């Protein structure tokens, strides 16, 4: 069997998958370029955003699940954010053995300052689609995501 079977003339489902991967990589690169221009790291910002989305505090295990990393990895990823003063930890109010990650005022300020520019960058990169196409794409992505859950 030749490898060409797996790299050329792929079924539509496989072609579509790789088109999504390639497009996503380009969009993520544009977003990351913005973060680099601000001397920031997109992965760290994503963590801060997830904490903010959770109301400003979250358990490390929940955060790890939301960004798709292990509990050990999330612990390592949180260290620089705590050193920079963007987060701090506190005991869980109901279970003192657990720790919560809390977005600090400095972390909130950072997000407030840099998120608008990033969202403008993202919007600019999505302008090749009109509003109806964006709604259709969003609907299709939700449908696909629901099937994968």
UniProtKB/TrEMBL annotation:
<feature type="domain" description="HTH marR-type">
    <location>
        <begin position="13"/>
        <end position="146"/>
    </location>
</feature>
<protein>
    <recommendedName>
        <fullName>HTH marR-type domain-containing protein</fullName>
    </recommendedName>
</protein>
<dbReference type="InterPro" id="IPR036388">
    <property type="entry name" value="WH-like_DNA-bd_sf"/>
</dbReference>
<dbReference type="InterPro" id="IPR023187">
    <property type="entry name" value="Tscrpt_reg_MarR-type_CS"/>
</dbReference>
<keyword id="KW-0238">DNA-binding</keyword>
<dbReference type="InterPro" id="IPR036390">
    <property type="entry name" value="WH_DNA-bd_sf"/>
</dbReference>
<keyword id="KW-0805">Transcription regulation</keyword>
<keyword id="KW-0804">Transcription</keyword>
<dbReference type="InterPro" id="IPR000835">
    <property type="entry name" value="HTH_MarR-typ"/>
</dbReference>
<dbReference type="Pfam" id="PF12802">
    <property type="entry name" value="MarR_2"/>
</dbReference>
């Amino acid at each position: 069997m030749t490898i060409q079977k797996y790299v050329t003339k792929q079924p539509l489902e496989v072609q579509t998958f790789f088109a999504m991967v390639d497009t996503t990589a380009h969009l993520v690169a544009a977003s990351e370029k913005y973060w680099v221009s601000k001397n920031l790291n997109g992965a760290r910002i994503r963590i801060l955003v997830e904490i903010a989305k959770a109301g400003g505090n979250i358990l490390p295990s929940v955060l790890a699940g939301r960004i798709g990393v292990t509990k050990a990895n999330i612990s390592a990823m949180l260290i620089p954010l705590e050193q920079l003063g963007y987060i701090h930890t506190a005991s869980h109010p109901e279970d003192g053995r657990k720790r919560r990650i809390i977005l600090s005022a400095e972390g909130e300020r950072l997000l407030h300052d840099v998120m608008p520019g990033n969202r403008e960058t993202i919007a600019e990169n999505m302008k090749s689609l009109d509003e109806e196409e964006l709604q259709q794409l969003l609907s299709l992505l939700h449908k696909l995501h629901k099937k994968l859950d």
